[in-house]
Amino acid sequence: MNASLSLNVSIVRPEYFFIAGLTGVSYSRYYYIFLFCTYIIAVIGNSTVLLIIAFDRSLHSPKYIGVFNLALADFGETNALIPNMMRTFVFESQYISYNACLANMFFVFFFNTMQCSTLVVLAYDRFVAICLPLRYHNIVTNTVMSLICSAVWAFNAFNTGTVVLLINRLSFCKSKVVPSYFCDHGPVYKLACNDRSVNAFLAVFNICLYLIAPLILILLSYLGIFLALSKITTWEGRLKALKTCVSHLLLVASLFLPIICIYLIASTTYLSPNARIISASLAYATPPMLNPIIYVLNTAEIKLLIKKVFKNRSVPS
């Protein structure tokens, strides 16, 4: 009982954290306004994709269930991140309460993990469609895709919740300044003055789970796809099959390439806090903006539906 009491007493939780953001950068407010512009585009674009898929029955297929979940994750991530950044830095409200900080951390990382996971699910869809075309409709049904996506949402919510809740075991008895642009897990747990080895392990584990593992699975799926394409006798047939993967490949590149570049640069050279904040915030903000644009430009069904809508509006009644 005394040991438990001493443990509770030793845990120091601050009333608030101070989000540092960009320091010593002239006109940094204009950068945050630029991010707000990406936010507006992301919200409009992803809302459009969500509504189109929801109301057009012809898009109620396994592939578009995956696209719907990706758009929902993009919508959630950009709303969890950028409005808070605007309130924090543009309106100079850089203090955030302890509980609000943990909530912000949860939602940003939860929706980001959903983006990574959903791209793996879409890679699985393309793998089966190209490698097993005759069995595709038996293997990947609407029910199966819905169950997969539901399981991914549930697992990521549990995993992210566990990571965030374990912040409560830390004691913050020194600095309360978070050298980031939101309540980032790494900068927050590194402020602790007691044992943080569990938090450090989970940080590395989640990098492997949501960055390295998805990339390996996606690369393996495309290795299988390219092997299947090599068996198609005509170039026209190969290009037609590969064309169905273009959107997915662009989505993978827009999400993973910036993050990989940041990690590589940070591991090989010194990355100043301001450079880290700018590069990381762009890596978080741009994919939700680009993803709906990529799908609209590369998906014939969505382009055709949008053309029909504008054509109907242009015809006088």
Summary of the model, kept short:
By secondary structure, the protein is an all-alpha fold. The chain contains 12 helices and 3 strands, in the order αβααβαααβαααααα.
Keywords:
317 residues; disordered N terminus; mainly alpha
Tally of helical segments: 12
The global form is globular
Radius of gyration: 22 Å
Binned strand content? under 5%
Largest sheet: 3 strands, mixed
Average per-residue pLDDT, rounded, comes to: 90
User: Structural class of the helices, strands and pairings?
Assistant: mainly alpha
Q: Kindly report how far apart the N and C termini lie.
A: 79 Å
Tell me how many strands there are: 3
Q: Could you explain how this protein is built, in words?
A:
It is a single chain. With 317 residues, the protein is mainly α. 76% of the residues lie in helices and 3% in strands. It is built from twelve helices and three strands, in the order αβααβαααβαααααα. The protein has helices at 2-10, 28-55, 62-90, 98-131, 136-139, 142-165, 185-189, 197-230, 235-243, 246-268, 273-298, 300-314, and strands at 16-19, 95-97, 177-178. Strands 2-1-3 form a three-stranded mixed beta sheet. The longest helix has 34 residues, at 98-131. It is globular, with a radius of gyration of 22 Å. The protein starts with a helix and ends with a helix. Mean pLDDT is 90; it is low at 1-7.
